[in-house]
Amino acid sequence: MRFVDIQRKESLGPAIAGAMTRTFALCALALAALLPAACVAVPDAPIVEGTPLVQGSAVALGQPVRVGDLVVTPRRVVEDSRCPINARCVWAGRVIVETRIDGAGWRDTADITLGETYETHGRIVALVSVEPGKMAPETIAADAYRFTYEPR
Fold first, then answer.
1. Residue 103 belongs to what H/E stretch?
2. From CA 137, how far away is CA 139, in angstroms rounded?
3. Neighbours of 90 (CB within 10 A)
């Protein structure tokens, strides 16, 4: 078999053609070795949808936020029975938020109550603030809520 250099329009010898074939094969092998490394998940980092905000940020439902080495995402308000700011109540009420917690190689979902802590995988997370405060007789739209979490 003879190879022809189209630009020079002359035949290349079998030694040069063999060298070109070996070079191509080595390049293909090197590329094949590197591609799987580009697809490997980093085991030391939580896997989440979206870019987490910095720790201490008040976040909306569905917005991830860093809490220590975790990423926490409020998913939905399970209960908001807080006493409205403009009312007198016998009981202060509570807020419970379904929260997804992502760590390195694991994921947990829990209902976290405002002012209480939740422990998972040796880490403790607290829901420390829920805004806005309730006003009678209004209801709070889901997209108006903001949540702040802290590590403990």
1. strand 95-103
2. 7
3. 5
Q: Which residue type occupies 52?
A: P
- For residues 54 and 66, the answer to whether their CB atoms sit within 8 Å is yes
HSE (CB half, 13 Å, CA atoms) of 114?
Answer: 18
Tens-place pLDDT, residues 26-52: 555 555 555 555 555 555 667 777 789
Both tokens assigned to 31: 């590329």
What is the spatial distance between Cα 36 and Cα 64, in angstroms, rounded to a whole number?
A: 29
Instruction: Please tell me whether residue 36 adopts helix, strand or coil conformation.
Output: helix
Q: What pTM value is reported for the model?
A: 0.69
DSSP string, 64-86: -EEETTEEEEEEEEEEE-PPPTT
